[in-house]
Automatic annotation (TrEMBL):
Residue positions, PTM N6-(pyridoxal phosphate)lysine: 246
CDD domains xref list: KBL_like
Protein name: 8-amino-7-ketopelargonate synthase
Pathway(s) it belongs to: Cofactor biosynthesis; biotin biosynthesis
InterPro entries for the chain: Aminotrans_II_pyridoxalP_BS (IPR001917), Aminotransferase_I/II_large (IPR004839), AON_synthase_class-II (IPR050087), AONS_Archaea/Proteobacteria (IPR004723), PyrdxlP-dep_Trfase (IPR015424), PyrdxlP-dep_Trfase_major (IPR015421), PyrdxlP-dep_Trfase_small (IPR015422)
The keyword Secreted appears for this protein: no
GO biological process: biotin biosynthetic process
UniProt keyword Acyltransferase present: yes
Length: 398
């Protein structure tokens, strides 16, 4: 008989790994977060200025979005009951996809259940074993995972380094199917992709170009159609995805492109075929968000004014903001523990911002990532910058 209970080896392995994460200050814990009046939050009973959300235009708390969701529930129910190809394709889908296509000036569009699923699904559906993916090193994790799932050759070029990308393109055979993929606004550095150059390269090397507008949709372009729209490059980009989960205030994602591309995704994308359609409420929010974002350009300009002011102030105090030019403003701290301590001290002062650590960012580039929204007051931002700079000085960051 066994006298001592032996731990199964997988349990030991997992516990060891958790202990290791703890040791290197990378173990994550969930904290309960309640929304107060925007842009304030309640974390553990303390009221804090929210500099951590992707609710860039404030639509997550908007009464009109909430009403659209409630109305959709009353009309169509709580759940879609099946995937879209079975019987889950409730009438709101067609309305939202039509609004999407008009807004993005695209031939066709498709709603996908989340941004993560969109990147996983689109990339793994379009590419397979003998194809090649060229991906910016700072692209979102969902793009990396899509590339892995596709089993295509996955080449990562140095962040925004077009010479590196071109060298990689030159090396591969002209026959291979190629996809260049990039975030338009990078989620950790807050800088932009060089879309004009990427279009030039994709044309020269006969590749497809895919953009992820998760942090661009709603924010850039005359009608908030995204950063590609701002540069008038929408028609040159083969596959544009974006999300409704950030500036558009609710949840879910879209992809737009040529009709044949969207038809193909409907027929082959497993995450679309084998997953239940979105609840009607989400479609209600999407439809209203697409309308509001076009009707309310003043929110975009307010966001730009606030972001520019915030970046300028932090730079003035001597922080390294990683070349940010958007509403995403990181300050580089360095070591993981130091970034964690910085975030804790910010919380004590009433500021909610997150420490971003490897593997999300490179080693020794742990940072505090601030996100500015249209809802902030200039005086609140100034108050936050003052606190940030005091902590920065005390901790020897500036
Ligand atoms: C947030 C994000 C996603 C994922 O979108 P979800 O709708 O949250 O799943 C994809 N790409 C980028 C660049 C993102 O920032």
């Amino acid at each position: 008989m066994h006298s001592e209970k032996q731990l199964p080896c997988w349990e030991e392995k997992i516990k060891k790994e958790l202990a290791y994460l703890e040791e290197i200050s990378q173990k994550r814990e969930l904290v309960s977060t309640e929304f107060a009046e925007q842009p304030w939050l309640m974390i553990n009973g303390c009221r804090m200025l929210n500099l951590a959300s992707n609710n860039y235009l404030g639509y997550a708390g908007d009464e009109r979005l909430k009403k659209a969701m409630v109305d959709a529930v009353h009309t169509y129910g709580a759940g879609a009951t099946a995937s879209r190809l079975i019987i889950g394709n409730h009438p709101l889908y067609e309305q939202v996809e039509q609004a999407l296509v008009n807004w993005k000036k695209a031939e066709a569009g498709l709603i996908i259940n989340s941004g993560y699923n969109a990147n996983l699904g689109i990339i793994s559906t379009l590419l397979s074993r003998n194809d090649i993916i060229y991906s910016d090193k700072l692209n979102h994790a969902s793009i990396v995972d899509g590339a892995l799932l596709s089993r295509a050759k996955h080449l990562r070029y140095r962040h925004n380094d077009l010479d590196h990308l071109e060298a990689l393109l030159k090396k591969s055979s002209m026959e291979a199917r190629k996809l260049i993929v990039t975030d338009t606004v990078f989620s950790m550095d807050g800088d932009f992709a060089y879309l004009e150059d990427l279009v030039r390269l994709k044309e020269r090397y006969n590749a497809m170009l895919m953009t992820d507008e998760a942090h661009g949709s709603g924010i850039y372009g005359k009608n908030g159609e995204g950063y590609a729209g701002h540069l008038h490059l929408q028609s040159k980009i083969d596959i544009q995805m974006g999300t409704f989960s950030k500036a558009l205030g609710s949840f879910g994602a879209y992809v737009v492109g040529k009709k044949w591309l969207i038809d193909y995704l409907k027929n082959r994308m497993r995450g679309f075929i084998y997953s239940t359609a979105l609840p009607p409420a989400i479609l209600g929010a999407m439809k209203t968000a697409i309308e509001l974002v076009q009707q309310e350009p003043e929110r975009r300009s307010l966001l730009q004014t606030h972001s520019e002011h915030f970046r300028k102030e932090l730079t003035y105090y001597g922080f390294n903001i990683c070349g940010s030019r958007s509403q995403i403003v990181p300050i580089v701290i360095g070591e993981n523990e130091k970034a964690m301590e910085f975030a804790t001290r910010l919380q004590k002062e009433g500021i909610a911002a997150i420490a971003v650590r490897p593997p999300t960012v490179p080693e020794n580039e742990a940072r505090i990532r601030f996100t500015v929204t249209a809802l902030h007051d200039k005086k609140d931002l100034d108050w936050a910058v003052e606190k940030v700079s005091i902590i920065g000085k005390e901790m020897g960051v500036i």
